[in-house]
Amino acid sequence: MGKYIMRSLLPFLYLFSVCTKGAGASDLTMPFMEYLDQNHMVCLKWGFDDVQGEITFKLVVNTTGWVGFGFSTNGGMKGSDIVIGGLGPSGHYFKDYYAIRNSMPLVDEQQSYSLLSMTETEDQTIMTFQRSIKSCDDQDFHITNQPIKLIYAYGLTDDIAYHQSRRGTKEVNLLNFTPRKIVTNPNYLSASVQNISVPSSHTYYHCKVMKFPALSTKRHVYRIEPVIENIDIVHHMLLYRCPSYVTEPYDSQCYMGNIGDSCFGIVAVWGVGGGPFEVPENVGIPFGGDDNDRFYRLEVHYNNPNNESGRTDSSGLRLYYADQLRQYDVGIMATGVLQFGDLDYNIPPKAPQFRTYGVCNTTMFSKVLVNGDLFAVLMHTHLAGRKVRVGHYRNGKQIDFLGLDENYNFELQQSYNLGNIKTIKPGDEIAVECTYSTTSRSKVTKMGLATTDEMCLAFMLYYPAIDISTCISHPDTTHPFIDAIIFLYHIIFSFSQNKYSVNENGIIREMMKTPTVTCMNINASSRLCTSWIVNPAGIMLFLLWIAIM
Ligand SMILES: *[C@@H]1O[C@H](CO)[C@@H](O)[C@H](O)[C@H]1NC(C)=O
Ligand SMILES: *[C@@H]1O[C@H](CO)[C@@H](O)[C@H](O)[C@H]1NC(C)=O
Ligand SMILES: *[C@@H]1O[C@H](CO)[C@@H](O)[C@H](O)[C@H]1NC(C)=O
Ligand SMILES: *[C@@H]1O[C@H](CO)[C@@H](O)[C@H](O)[C@H]1NC(C)=O
Ligand SMILES: *[C@@H]1O[C@H](CO)[C@@H](O)[C@H](O)[C@H]1NC(C)=O
Questions:
Q1: Which of 58, 167, 342, 440 is 20 to 30 A from residue 467's alpha carbon, by CA?
Q2: Is 188 exposed, middle or buried (0-12, 13-18, 19+ CB in 10 A)?
Q3: Atom of ligand 1 nearest to the CA of 123
Q4: Which of 113, 130, 526, 529 to mutate to test the pocket of ligand 2 (most atoms within 8 A of CB)?
């Protein structure tokens, strides 16, 4: 009923901010957008693929003359890396330039940008082009995950000449983008601890299980912002959604056996050094309405290496919600390895690289599925985790990675915004691989909730949401101490109905070697020099029944 009303009102409820009719918000390869000038004449959309090492731009400028875009170390033209193009009387033109002074830039010997399309409407020029994130050309700028000064200029005609005042600069973090907050409606939910005493020990986890104030109608949270009181000791924060059997609040040390410890559906993550997190413009994380009674657990990790005493803290997260509902609900689905139950699956001590796998097989979803558009992934292990990789498989073959962290650090957990939107089709499989190091441990490490136990999870943020919160599996416990796991017990859990379905067969397919993206020059004829070598350690399939719970 609620859903029906929402759907019928949709055309009136959601708003897109688009630079042009041509550059719609449905552009899956370029989810990010920023105007480079105050007057909104120059709009940049972009997206990137970490795995393949490419970044794609769409520059939309309200002119029918030439358009220029570039990267600059100081915001000026001198020393900058520039592309200039347009559509003139004799067709399109497009070149990679570099500027050694504030004058007409010089054409690069190596053309490292490739033009994907050049179109012109009555009053706009739309130039779509691509380059590798890292370039081998000294005349090109190296794109990093730091804020970068972007420059633009354009002309009124197709004669590339002095731009006069039609130029500007804007600093944007292309690879780690959070749009600036536009406070049209500063409504937020607050999840924070209140004046808690931080004990004089090195590490302390404080948990607060709580309900948010009642929201009679559903709201869409679109931005999650940290509010840190003591930046020197607050190390990371996680907000988890609780299962419906958690009905009591608590506010004390985590993992002391409280039932609220089983709230592990991550909704938000902040790690030291991180900033706010924002979801795409057409989606929101649903809160309130029918789900009003839901409890949430805020976990704050304090790092107090000097064992200072007498410190108090009131840090937390602000969850900004939009005035109006957005088009789609964000779904958050946990994939990876099941960590509950009496399954006796242990990581051996003294193992330098122990790998474990969990699989989500969407063919086992009972409902007819639509495509899920994935935009962010949170990868989660505990202290022994060293590496997490999430593979995407279709028709039995790996087609991509949905997440890659070759240097996983529990102390630096971050939401991982993909540079583009990856579509999960019905029937696709997702495999999560976690690599642990237990060289410093003398006892086995079990899968569980305590930070000294382990987890292997990837939380997928996608839309439109379906009612499945968990799609995880468990390896064969009859072979607990082998590197390659050969069996899966598959469990799919539906959140709202607390129903689960179990399937006892499954396989672990080969996961590719992580591609090594080095610097490269791309042009229209040769685009990729990524190596996709398949990991030969192929792993077989098996089936077996394991009784759980
Ligand atoms: C730019 O062009 C678009 C499409 O014609 C138009 O909607 C928009 O108002 C223009 N922007 C400005 C600042 O002139
Ligand atoms: C593009 O790559 C091809 C093949 O590597 C090369 O022959 C060609 O010269 C390159 N073109 C430019 C403009 O760099
Ligand atoms: C916070 O707690 C400390 C002791 O734990 C107390 O002295 C202080 O008054 C409290 N502050 C507030 C604002 O409640
Ligand atoms: C802090 O306390 C722990 C034991 O709780 C101790 O091992 C460590 O050396 C202490 N650190 C400092 C800086 O005093
Ligand atoms: C997913 O399920 C299908 C249908 O049951 C099966 O053929 C396939 O092997 C399963 N994939 C994995 C990775 O277990």
A1: 342
A2: middle
A3: 5
A4: 526
- Predicted structure pTM score: 0.76
Domains and CATH numbers, the chain: 10-172 (2.60.40.1210), 186-329 (2.60.120.310), 333-371+381-518 (2.60.120.230), 525-549 (no CATH)
- What digits encode the pLDDT tens for the residues 118-145? 999 999 999 999 999 887 677 778 888 7
- In angstroms, the CA 108 to CA 122 distance is 31
As a whole number of angstroms, the distance between CA 163 and CA 82 comes to: 14
Residues paired with 298 in a beta bridge: 208, 239
Say yes or no: CB of residue 63 within 6 Å of ligand 1.
no
The response to whether residue 41 sits with its C-beta less than 6 Å from ligand 1 reads yes
Q: Quick one: pLDDT band at residue 540, thresholds 50, 70, 90?
A: very low
45 forms beta bridges with 33, 58
Calpha distance 471→358 (Å, rounded)? 9
Q: How far is CA 356 from CA 73, 386, 430, 439, in A?
A: 43, 12, 14, 16
Please give the torsion angle defined by the CA atoms of residues 58, 60, 63 and 65, in that order, rounded to the nearest 10 degrees. 0
Bridge partners (DSSP) of residue 492 are 471, 501
- Residues near 199 by beta carbon (within 8 Å), at least 6 away in sequence: 304, 309
406 touches 513 (CB < 8 A): no
From residue 430, how far is each of 89, 434, 441, 484 by CA, in Å? 49, 13, 30, 17
Q: Is 5 helix (H, G, I), strand (E, B) or coil?
A: helix
User: In this predicted model, which residue has the larger pLDDT, 341 or 122?
Assistant: 122
Picking from 89-98, 104-113, 407-416, which range would have the lowest pLDDT averaged per residue? Answer: 407-416
Q: Active-site residue 245, yes or no?
A: no
E strand intervals along 366-498 = 372-380, 385-394, 397-405, 416-424, 429-436, 445-446, 457-463, 470-475, 488-494
Residue type, 115: L
Q: How confident is the model over 292-309, as pLDDT tens digits?
A: 889 999 999 998 889 999
